[in-house]
# Entry
Amino acid sequence: MRHSRCVILCVLIGLVSLPARADFHVFACEPEWAALTRALMPDAHFTTATSYLQDPHYIEARPSLIAAMGRADIAICTGASLEAGWLPTLLQRAGNAQVQPGRTGLFFAADHAQLHAPHDHVDRSMGDVHPEGNPHVHLSPDQLPKIAEALAKRLGELRPEHSADIFARYITWRVNWNSHRERWRESAKALEGHSFVIQHTGFSYLLSWLGVGSTVDLEPKPGLPPSASHLSQLLTDPGLDKASAILIASHQDRKPAEWLVKQTNKPILVLPGTVTDDSPNDNLAGLISTIVGRLESSITEVSDGSL
Ligand SMILES: [Zn+2]
# Structure
């Protein structure tokens, strides 16, 4: 009896002493935004709609996600039409007034970045092109600080009582990011001028920041799966000869890349396109360091002739 009373009391004390931020519910469309928000508000509750093993363009608005969106104090997504196939349905079904378009509770990272390759005109013949530009901005060493700063401001607006803490964490994040960026800059010296075969534009911001070429794409058009005719055409692409390796993301079908490996003997690199659950790739700086390290070792292995 005494024991059970203690248990009840302990639970009650535990509840009372929980920090207020534990009541703050974050809905992240992609894991990179959950990781970034966690750096600013580590005590919040997180629901992440997609994982590094999924293609963020296409997911289902399943009931558990609708329920999580219904509870969200903030929804943090990429924007620039990346989630156009599922986010509007999710927002509408959840019916949470806090996180509707135009409200402070809906944050789009792409609104705070300068997107590459915007289009004035898009039509279906171009494939799945986003008119706003390439939305896969989360691996951009230069754009992330702008997004993180805007996110810190937005979180501070939603929880003014914690805005000083959030801003202090943003500064810590920024200092850490800048020191990583210096190291990536060093690696870029070795990588500059090399090129990689890609599949979609998921790594493009990072590759172009590193001075690495990526003109040969396994996709015939953005968002369209590699076709046999497109792959055989690639064999005559002069860019293919120059490419050091074939780079694809963990969620992508490996078969097209493996076919090209057989034809060309080039190495294949399969890397997470976004943060994973495990260290060191569970945060964006760690993930970029992994990608840069793997790119570097792929070019040294190739020049050593060890493959
Ligand atoms: Zn895309």
Remarks:
- Strands lie at 25-28, 45-48, 74-77, 106-108, 196-197, 245-249, 268-271.
- The pocket of zinc ion is lined by residues 57, 136, 200-201 (CB under 6 Å).
- The first strand starts at residue 25 and ends at 28.
- Residues 10-20 have pLDDT under 50 and may be disordered.
